[in-house]
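Notes from hallway chat w/ T.B., transcribed later so I don't forget. T.B. wanted the structure written out for a chain they're using in a teaching module, and asked if we could keep both sequence and structure tokens in one place. Agreed to drop them here.
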Amino acid sequence: MGNIGLKLGSTVVAAAIGLTAALAAAPADAASQELVQAAEKEGTVVWYTSMIVDQAVRPLVAAFEKKYPKIDVQFSRASSSDTALKIVNESSAGHVMGDVFDGNGAYIVLRPANLVEPYVADSAAEIPAEYKGPDGYWAAPNVYYLSAAINTDMVSKDDAPKTYQDLLDPKWKNQMVWSVVPQESGAPGFIGNILMTMGQEKGMDYLHKLAAQKITNMDTSQRTVLDRVIVGDFPLALMTYTHHSPISAAKGAPVDWLRMEPVIASPNTVGLVRGAPHPNAGKLLIDFILSKEGQTVLAKGMYLPTNPNVAAKVPDLMANGPRPFKVTMMTPEVVSEGLPKWIKIFNQLFR
């Protein structure tokens, strides 16, 4: 009996040692095996995304399906507002098809409509608090920074505006362009940044003066606005995604972004659709997008990761990079509260 007891005891000890080693070897942000198995039973996940397909979506899908070959990812790319409308319509019809969505503009519509299911992914543990919702309704795999950009053939570095006050110089009258999409990433977000930075009275005084500069309104994407600057239609654009400039510059385009502080920081929110047909697969996809592995894929595509342990491809694009800059953080909560007022001011002054 003594020998049998010793043998069983050794087995238990060996098993415990093996389990400890396995846990130590597993990535800290690895999804639980229970979640993986439940997701594999569902076999499919549907992702409504606002990210650029070739730059981010396809690489993420390829990496996810390589890691989880039993799960098929189906994705549909649209703007944040169109994504929100699609999910709202599906819910109203009683036929929810999407599992996961991303985009700040989508979240601020879906959350008040009770169409977001809270989920706290294990992989989000290393992501700073400012990039996560306090109740688990959203987390940000990447952050977008928005600032001005110039055509470097038309504007020298010395002549480029350095501050918001510089935009009031008469030489910029009729020379500026921006996207007027009704989101924090368009002209309303610029207005919000000014009011949050300068205060109501000084901010409104500034905005009245800026309106006299006759900025050209374009009801299109920030990328299209930047392209108009690149081809020389305008020397200066406001509210461009900063990472778009180095992408184009690397291909020979005469463009650069300006560190006009505070730069707007807009976290890209990812969330789980309430009533999702594949909730476990949806959770697993969110877990992967927020993980170091997913963040690394995004970084390779020139997206700016929120995990401080994943380096951006161009470190200077990061607010906490080698050349740090001040930001105004446009969280979904800030945008939800301020956007209606910012849109109203835009319509009064800039339409």
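Follow-up for T.B.: Residues 2-25 form the longest helix (24 residues). Might be a good example for the class.
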